[in-house]
Amino acid sequence: MKIIRLVSIIALLLRKEKVQAKDLAEMFEVSVRTILRDIDTIDQAGIPIVTTQGVGGGIGLAEGFRIDKSVLTSEEIGTIIASLNTKSFSQTELSNEVLIDKFKNILKEDQVRVIEQASKQLVIDHKPWFENNQIQLLREKIQIQIKNHLLIDFNYKPMEGAHSHRTIEPYSLVFKNHRWYVYGYCFKKEAFRLFKLQRMRDTCFSDTAFTPKDFSIDDLSFKQNWVNQGEKELFVLSFEPFMRGVIDELFSHDTDVREENGKIIVTFENTLSHMFLGYILSFGDTVEVVSPQKAREDILSLSQNIYKKYI
What is the DSSP string of 193-219? Predict the structure, then answer.
């Protein structure tokens, strides 16, 4: 949010000769101290700010200073607003709508028209087709804990293994691969960990505050390709021809895809895991694992176990 506020302040200073810090604080619903820090940040970025005291005083740009239009065009502001307009069924979505309105109020009428057109060219909708209200409520409560630096206690069930009680310092909500996670410092593991919201049980939102730790966004584990860790094997799958559309969506353009004997043959590398076998089984009888042999045997064993449940 800070970057949007900084851009908005700059746009406002370009239009008005002087503004009051208290007026900016009311506009963006932050403290005067926060606005003064923002002004200092803008000044350090190379945009000269002049502050005058007394009647008619306030915050303004140095006389004669102008920002080249290439710094931030109307189209670029439109992209920012389109990003803010992301649909996610969260409190953030409502806050963004308020911020968008404030952003538009400081711009010229012709700029607003260009921005509204540009913002409609990019639509980002994270809402699932079938919304899980419990996950939505959990996510909103976690957002409050993150904002107020409050601990979270819960029981966690990993994909493999038993439940374990966790207490974390929450730092970030992560939306990855159509699932929500909370990233935080886990006292049990004495390290940062990523927790899937669907696996959190008996969640308690503590009133105990914590002092946030410093961490780099580049070091976060959710940016790693942890799904494909391990030794990779060469997979060859044989799909029914009517699955062409699905294959084109699932596999990258550089994947080896060819037609052979009325089937579509897909060749790629992946790790052999229970998760991946379950993914293959989700295609039902539209696919056959040609190789590796171990994967064929595992699929056969799983299929036989499924069959026994229905006879």
Answer: EEEEGGGEEEEEEEEEE-PPPP--GGG
